[in-house]
């Protein structure tokens, strides 16, 4: 479960301070699929980055499974992300010098899994997203849709408690987008908690709950 | 911090980065490290080798392994025949050359001078009486004949003159120092020793990069003995060549135990080195180290720039790695390992080139410096130390830029924000 209390985030640019999140209270229950929507600049991605511990909020509290993330050190947050969270980025964020399998296996190895076990899990994750035949291809040798599926495989291989996705279909064609959303649907059906930022109405319908952000606040 | 897990992941990342990076870039960096290694080892090695070459030359062409010479307050070695017998009886000794030495003058133009106002062409020299065969066995003196021929035991009234006594080979005009003009094998000159003058013919000219050879005039020992009236067979210098593998100090100590040091100085070739030679070795080593240090700094900066540019261009991916939970230390280790790889490859190639090609090649064809045949001195211990230094410097130079980039905010790195 994620609980966010009075979350604020502002950015300083010289003398100017831009308040992007203006006090958000939010709860996501375990197993929920939540879509965060809003117009461009509403603070959707910023909200996701704070919840997923990729960024430091200016103020407010974030609890994940009752654990106060505010008190965590940088290393603790890194380990928390490694063991409990999964990420799917808009631009896939794959490491170009590593094959699909290596991209997926890396976080598993970092969890100190035995090499054989890690590679087996990585392979299973890639098979799950339909890329069992592309294990040894470099990202540059894959289509956009395939790269995003590798990104999903990397995010779910270690069976995270929460999967965060930042506009996962933004760079994909319709067919690839549908394929990605179907994977999310399957994961959700299997009990995966998913928090997804999207600006596409069509794909927000896959979620249990949609929250709308406008001018740094939840409006619905 | 540097846990086995971080090292394992660092290795995983480094291996893939090196494997998939541009081969030309990798080759270029290794090339830079290779030349840095050579700069570290060869520059100081040549500088030390320049002096070492001179030391080797003095040993092989003059002092040999052990030299027995007259005491400072004596004009010759007393009881020389007995001492020679002791030396020749030692099983460690391979060859011995006993020399008579007297200061004298040489005059070249006495036949062509037409007026008493014309200045005689006189050069001061150390006149040395030798047994040509014994001398050649010890110092290979015949190898240094550049004009004419070497002496035979029957060559009375014939001399070999050192090249530094001739204007042809030492064309300097310095007050108080004169050389013989227009002399060549076959030219007659006058040798004056102890007021006794004798006309001799130049049989050959000797040129070696050892002053004690090139500044001397050599004649048959019996002839010099008769010139100076030395009938007791007491000599001034004995050079002893030892069998291969014999420690000169052992023979020196045997001779001292036999009382030779009471009538003569007994020195190994090392003992006989003047202090300034030892100081020069140290000075050149220091100079070499200073120059090498500059090379080391240049290499560090090169690696720093390479890793910094690499880390800057990969900042987004470093952010992604941190984002998916890869420990910062593991990422830093990956860059340290990359730096290590470049330094290691450069050093390995450097060691191969150094010991398989450079050192043997320079040993076979020494560098022709004006005062020595320079060799490349690169002892393994010194090379290992320099490799360690190069590795350490490179690793630090790789770590600092990696640390600078890795410590940046994760999200800023992923999004490319400053």
UniProtKB/TrEMBL annotation, chain A:
Keyword Transport attached: yes
Q: Which Pfam family name is an example for this entry?
A: ABC_tran
List the Gene Ontology MF annotations in alphabetical order. Answer: ATP binding; ATP hydrolysis activity; transmembrane transporter activity
Gene Ontology cellular component list: membrane protein complex
Q: Sorted alphabetically, which InterPro entries does this protein's record hold?
A: AAA+_ATPase, ABC_transporter-like_ATP-bd, ABC_transporter-like_CS, MacB-like_ATP-bd, P-loop_NTPase
The signal peptide, as residue positions, is: none
Q: Which UniProt keywords apply?
A: ATP-binding, Nucleotide-binding, Transport
Domain ABC transporter intervals: 2-220
Q: Which family does it belong to?
A: Belongs to the ABC transporter superfamily.
Protein name according to UniProt: ABC transporter
TrEMBL record, chain B:
Swiss-Prot/TrEMBL GO biological process terms: lipoprotein localization to outer membrane
Q: Where in the cell is it found?
A: Cell membrane
**GO cellular component: a single term:** plasma membrane protein complex
Residue ranges constituting the MacB-like periplasmic core domain according to the UniProt record: 47-256
Species this protein is from? Candidatus Nomurabacteria bacterium RIFCSPLOWO2_02_FULL_40_67
Q: Give the domain of life.
A: Bacteria
Q: Which family does it belong to?
A: Belongs to the ABC-4 integral membrane protein family. LolC/E subfamily.
Its record classes its membrane topology as: Multi-pass membrane protein
Span-the-membrane segments of this chain are 24-51, 290-312, 333-358, 378-400
**Domain named ABC3 transporter permease C-terminal: residues:** 290-409
Q: Which InterPro entries match?
A: ABC3_permease_C, Lipoprotein-release_system, MacB_PCD
Q: What are the record keywords, sorted?
A: Cell membrane, Membrane, Transmembrane, Transmembrane helix
- Name of this chain's protein: ABC3 transporter permease protein domain-containing protein
């Amino acid at each position: 479960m994620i609980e966010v209390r009075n979350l604020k985030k502002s950015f300083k640019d010289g003398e100017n301070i831009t308040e992007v999140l203006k006090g958000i209270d939010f709860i996501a229950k375990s197993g929920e699929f939540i879509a965060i929507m809003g117009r461009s600049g509403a603070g959707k991605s910023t909200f996701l980055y704070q919840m997923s511990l990729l960024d430091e909020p200016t103020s407010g509290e974030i609890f994940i499974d009752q654990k106060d993330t505010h008190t965590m050190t940088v290393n603790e947050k890194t380990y928390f992300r490694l063991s409990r969270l999964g990420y799917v980025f808009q631009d896939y964020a794959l490491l170009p010098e590593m094959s699909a399998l290596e991209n997926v296996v890396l976080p598993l190895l970092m969890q100190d899994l035995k090499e054989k076990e890690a590679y087996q899990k990585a392979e299973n994750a890639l098979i799950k997203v339909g890329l069992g035949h592309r294990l040894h291809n470099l990202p540059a040798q894959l289509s956009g849709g395939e790269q995003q599926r590798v990104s999903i495989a990397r995010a779910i291989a270690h069976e995270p408690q929460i999967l965060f996705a930042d506009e996962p279909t933004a760079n994909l064609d319709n067919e690839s987008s549908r394929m990605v959303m179907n994977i999310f649907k399957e994961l959700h059906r299997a009990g995966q908690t998913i928090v997804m930022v999207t600006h596409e109405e069509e794909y927000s319908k896959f979620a249990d709950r949609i929250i709308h952000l406008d001018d740094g606040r939840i409006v619905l | 911090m540097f846990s086995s897990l971080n090292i394992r992941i660092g290795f995983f990342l480094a291996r893939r980065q090196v494997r998939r990076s541009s081969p030309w870039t990798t080759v270029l960096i290794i090339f830079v490290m290779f030349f840095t290694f050579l700069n570290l080892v060869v520059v100081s090695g040549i500088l030390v080798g320049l002096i070492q070459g001179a030391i080797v030359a003095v040993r092989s062409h003059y002092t040999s392994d052990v030299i027995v010479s007259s005491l400072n307050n004596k004009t010759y070695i007393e009881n020389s025949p007995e001492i020679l017998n002791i030396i020749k009886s030692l099983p460690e000794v391979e060859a011995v050359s006993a020399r008579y030495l007297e200061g004298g003058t040489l005059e070249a133009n006495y036949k062509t001078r037409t007026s008493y106002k014309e200045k005689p062409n006189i050069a001061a020299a150390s006149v040395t009486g030798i047994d040509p065969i014994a001398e050649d066995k010890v110092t290979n003196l015949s190898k240094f004949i550049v004009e004419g021929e070497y002496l035979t035991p029957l060559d009375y009234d014939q001399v070999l003159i050192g090249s530094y006594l001739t204007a042809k080979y030492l064309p300097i005009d310095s007050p108080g120092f004169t050389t013989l003009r227009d002399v060549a094998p076959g030219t007659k000159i006058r040798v004056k020793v102890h007021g006794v003058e004798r006309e001799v013919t130049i049989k050959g000219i000797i040129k070696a990069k050892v002053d004690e050879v090139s500044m001397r005039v050599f004649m048959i020992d019996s002839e010099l003995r008769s010139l100076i009236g030395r009938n007791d067979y007491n000599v001034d210098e004995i050079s002893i060549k030892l069998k291969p593998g014999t420690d000169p100090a052992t023979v020196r100590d045997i001779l001292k135990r036999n009382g030779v040091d009471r009538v003569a100085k007994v020195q190994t070739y090392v003992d006989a080195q003047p202090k300034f030679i030892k100081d020069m070795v140290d000075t050149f080593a220091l100079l070499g180290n200073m120059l090498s240090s500059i090379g080391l700094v240049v290499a560090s900066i090169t690696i720093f720039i390479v890793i910094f540019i690499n880390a800057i261009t990969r900042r987004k991916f470093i952010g992604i790695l941190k984002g998916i939970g890869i420990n910062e230390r593991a990422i830093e280790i990956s860059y340290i390992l990359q730096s290590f790889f470049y330094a290691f490859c450069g050093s390995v190639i450097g060691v191969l080139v150094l010991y398989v090609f450079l050192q043997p090649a320079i040993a076979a064809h020494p560098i022709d410096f004006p005062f020595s045949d320079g060799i490349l001195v690169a002892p393994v211990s010194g090379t290992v130390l320099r490799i360690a230094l190069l590795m350490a410097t490179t690793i630090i130079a790789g770590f600092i830029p990696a640390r600078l980039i890795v410590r940046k905010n994760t999200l800023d790195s992923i999004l490319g924000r400053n």
